[in-house]
Design a protein that fits this description.
Layout: H1 2-19, H2 26-40, H3 45-71, E1 87-95, E2 100-105, E3 108-114, E4 125-132, E5 135-140
Parallel strand pairs: 3-5
Antiparallel strand pairs: 1-2, 1-4, 2-3, 4-5
Length: 142
């Protein structure tokens, strides 16, 4: 019966890993193999479980930091990033409550919202604080 336990652990870990885009369970497959080998060698169940847990932990600690470096998504910068910190002019009144407002910055028209949630009238010079989706978040310039 124990052999089925270890085969199930290995199959489940590999199946979960195959279904995901990140490393989430491959270490458990290694631990399952260690438990299976311990079973084949005649070790009692408690020792099989301990060996499986220790091998899983060792594999996790040894490989995850290395692999994570390659799995982290790279941030893609676009030309839109260049508007952050720039001055803009409000061309349509900014009203966060009504979800309205537009500014012109570097010759381009953008949807805008105010950082503090307050209204900003047409003609006001604002500074672009950040970009959220396709909206600029702005604050009035002093």
């Amino acid at each position: 019966m124990e052999i089925l336990l270890w085969v199930a652990v290995i199959i489940a870990a590999v199946a979960v890993e195959a279904a995901s885009a990140q490393l989430v369970s491959i270490w458990f497959a290694g631990g399952g193999i260690a438990g299976l080998v311990a079973y084949i060698c005649g070790a009692p169940l408690w020792l099989q479980v301990i060996l499986a847990a220790v091998v899983t932990l060792i594999l996790l600690l040894a490989t995850r930091p290395f692999v994570q470096r390659f799995l982290q998504s790279k941030e893609t910068h676009t030309n839109a990033d260049r508007v952050v910190g720039r001055a803009a002019v409000v061309t349509e009144p900014i009203d966060n409550v009504l979800a309205r407002g537009r500014v012109t910055v570097l010759g381009n028209d953008w949807t805008a919202r105010s950082l503090d949630g307050g209204p900003i009238p047409v003609g006001t010079q604002v500074r672009v604080e950040r970009i959220e989706g396709v909206k600029l978040i702005v604050t009035p310039m002093q």
